[in-house]
Specification:
The chain is mostly beta strands. It has no helices and ten strands. About 5% of the residues have low confidence.
Amino acid sequence: MARTRTPVVSGWFTEDAPDGGGFRLLGTRCSACTAVFFPREDAYCRNPRCPGGGELAEVPLSPRGRVWSYTDGRYRPPAPYVSDPAAPWEPYTLVAVELEAEGMVVLGQAAPGVGVADLAVGMEVEVVGGVLNEDVGTSGTTGTGGTTGASGTVWTTWQFRPVGGTA
Protein backbone atom coordinates (compact mmCIF):
# COMPACT_ATOMS: atom_id res chain seq x y z
CA MET A 1 0.00 0.00 0.00
CA ALA A 2 1.33 3.46 -0.86
CA ARG A 3 2.07 6.10 1.72
CA THR A 4 0.06 9.30 1.58
CA ARG A 5 2.07 12.44 0.74
CA THR A 6 0.77 15.29 2.87
CA PRO A 7 2.13 18.86 3.10
CA VAL A 8 3.20 19.87 6.62
CA VAL A 9 1.16 23.06 6.10
CA SER A 10 -1.58 22.98 3.48
CA GLY A 11 -1.49 25.81 0.94
CA TRP A 12 2.09 26.98 1.63
CA PHE A 13 3.65 25.21 -1.36
CA THR A 14 2.85 23.15 -4.43
CA GLU A 15 4.78 20.32 -6.00
CA ASP A 16 3.32 21.14 -9.41
CA ALA A 17 3.20 24.91 -10.08
CA PRO A 18 0.56 25.98 -12.63
CA ASP A 19 3.20 27.72 -14.77
CA GLY A 20 5.05 24.42 -15.20
CA GLY A 21 7.63 25.60 -12.68
CA GLY A 22 7.66 22.42 -10.58
CA PHE A 23 7.99 22.86 -6.82
CA ARG A 24 7.16 26.39 -5.61
CA LEU A 25 6.35 28.17 -2.38
CA LEU A 26 2.95 29.87 -2.49
CA GLY A 27 2.30 33.34 -1.16
CA THR A 28 -0.38 35.94 -1.61
CA ARG A 29 -0.21 39.35 -3.29
CA CYS A 30 -2.39 42.35 -2.50
CA SER A 31 -3.89 43.92 -5.62
CA ALA A 32 -3.99 47.38 -4.01
CA CYS A 33 -0.35 47.75 -2.92
CA THR A 34 1.33 44.71 -4.59
CA ALA A 35 2.81 43.54 -1.25
CA VAL A 36 3.61 39.82 -1.24
CA PHE A 37 3.26 37.64 1.87
CA PHE A 38 4.74 34.33 2.94
CA PRO A 39 3.41 32.58 4.83
CA ARG A 40 0.33 33.38 2.82
CA GLU A 41 -2.24 35.84 4.14
CA ASP A 42 -5.86 35.18 3.25
CA ALA A 43 -7.74 37.60 5.54
CA TYR A 44 -6.30 41.10 5.00
CA CYS A 45 -3.24 42.96 3.72
CA ARG A 46 -0.61 43.24 6.47
CA ASN A 47 1.12 46.20 4.81
CA PRO A 48 0.50 49.25 7.06
CA ARG A 49 0.92 51.56 4.03
CA CYS A 50 -1.68 49.76 1.91
CA PRO A 51 -4.47 52.08 0.74
CA GLY A 52 -6.94 49.22 1.28
CA GLY A 53 -9.66 47.75 -0.86
CA GLY A 54 -7.42 45.21 -2.56
CA GLU A 55 -7.92 41.52 -3.12
CA LEU A 56 -5.44 38.90 -1.97
CA ALA A 57 -4.51 36.43 -4.69
CA GLU A 58 -2.33 33.33 -4.48
CA VAL A 59 0.98 33.63 -6.33
CA PRO A 60 3.86 31.20 -6.81
CA LEU A 61 7.04 32.69 -5.35
CA SER A 62 10.50 32.79 -6.92
CA PRO A 63 12.05 29.35 -7.32
CA ARG A 64 15.51 30.78 -6.58
CA GLY A 65 17.17 33.16 -4.18
CA ARG A 66 20.44 33.93 -2.40
CA VAL A 67 21.61 32.69 0.98
CA TRP A 68 21.08 35.47 3.50
CA SER A 69 22.24 33.44 6.52
CA TYR A 70 22.56 29.84 7.69
CA THR A 71 23.25 27.74 10.79
CA ASP A 72 23.15 24.15 11.92
CA GLY A 73 21.16 22.31 14.56
CA ARG A 74 23.40 19.79 16.26
CA TYR A 75 21.38 18.93 19.38
CA ARG A 76 18.03 17.36 20.17
CA PRO A 77 15.47 20.03 21.13
CA PRO A 78 14.82 20.26 24.88
CA ALA A 79 11.39 19.90 26.51
CA PRO A 80 8.62 20.88 25.84
CA TYR A 81 9.38 19.89 22.22
CA VAL A 82 8.46 16.32 21.36
CA SER A 83 11.42 14.20 20.34
CA ASP A 84 11.78 10.43 20.52
CA PRO A 85 14.88 9.83 22.70
CA ALA A 86 15.22 6.32 21.22
CA ALA A 87 15.51 7.65 17.65
CA PRO A 88 18.98 8.55 16.43
CA TRP A 89 19.56 12.31 16.27
CA GLU A 90 20.30 13.72 12.83
CA PRO A 91 21.87 17.22 12.66
CA TYR A 92 20.23 19.54 10.15
CA THR A 93 21.04 22.84 8.47
CA LEU A 94 18.72 25.88 8.43
CA VAL A 95 18.98 28.40 5.61
CA ALA A 96 17.52 31.91 5.40
CA VAL A 97 17.07 32.74 1.71
CA GLU A 98 16.26 36.10 0.13
CA LEU A 99 13.90 35.25 -2.73
CA GLU A 100 14.96 36.58 -6.12
CA ALA A 101 11.93 38.62 -7.21
CA GLU A 102 10.17 39.31 -3.90
CA GLY A 103 13.22 40.32 -1.84
CA MET A 104 11.71 38.68 1.24
CA VAL A 105 13.67 36.27 3.43
CA VAL A 106 12.25 32.76 3.89
CA LEU A 107 13.59 30.22 6.37
CA GLY A 108 13.81 26.51 5.58
CA GLN A 109 15.93 23.42 5.99
CA ALA A 110 18.75 22.64 3.60
CA ALA A 111 18.23 19.60 1.39
CA PRO A 112 19.72 16.33 2.65
CA GLY A 113 23.45 16.23 2.09
CA VAL A 114 23.83 20.03 2.24
CA GLY A 115 25.63 21.23 5.35
CA VAL A 116 27.06 24.52 6.54
CA ALA A 117 30.37 23.73 4.80
CA ASP A 118 28.48 23.68 1.46
CA LEU A 119 26.90 27.13 1.90
CA ALA A 120 28.08 30.73 1.73
CA VAL A 121 26.26 34.04 2.16
CA GLY A 122 25.22 35.27 -1.29
CA MET A 123 25.25 31.79 -2.87
CA GLU A 124 22.39 31.08 -5.28
CA VAL A 125 20.00 28.36 -4.08
CA GLU A 126 16.73 26.90 -5.30
CA VAL A 127 13.66 25.71 -3.44
CA VAL A 128 12.93 22.00 -3.76
CA GLY A 129 10.47 19.58 -2.28
CA GLY A 130 11.58 17.45 0.63
CA VAL A 131 10.41 15.14 3.37
CA LEU A 132 10.18 16.36 6.95
CA ASN A 133 9.01 13.11 8.51
CA GLU A 134 7.44 9.76 7.72
CA ASP A 135 4.79 8.11 9.90
CA VAL A 136 4.93 4.41 9.12
CA GLY A 137 2.06 2.11 9.87
CA THR A 138 1.14 -1.33 8.66
CA SER A 139 -1.86 -2.20 6.60
CA GLY A 140 -2.18 -5.75 7.88
CA THR A 141 -0.37 -8.91 8.88
CA THR A 142 0.11 -12.27 7.28
CA GLY A 143 -0.33 -15.62 9.01
CA THR A 144 3.45 -15.84 9.44
CA GLY A 145 3.70 -12.58 11.36
CA GLY A 146 4.85 -10.47 8.39
CA THR A 147 3.10 -7.38 7.10
CA THR A 148 1.08 -7.16 3.91
CA GLY A 149 2.24 -3.64 3.16
CA ALA A 150 3.39 -0.37 4.64
CA SER A 151 1.03 2.54 5.00
CA GLY A 152 1.32 5.86 6.72
CA THR A 153 2.03 9.47 5.87
CA VAL A 154 5.01 11.15 4.23
CA TRP A 155 5.03 14.75 5.53
CA THR A 156 6.37 16.98 2.75
CA THR A 157 7.96 20.42 3.09
CA TRP A 158 10.29 22.81 1.27
CA GLN A 159 14.06 22.74 1.38
CA PHE A 160 16.87 24.73 -0.22
CA ARG A 161 19.84 23.43 -2.19
CA PRO A 162 22.65 25.16 -4.09
CA VAL A 163 21.78 25.77 -7.75
CA GLY A 164 23.21 22.97 -9.82
CA GLY A 165 23.44 20.75 -6.72
CA THR A 166 22.28 17.17 -6.69
CA ALA A 167 21.41 16.98 -2.99
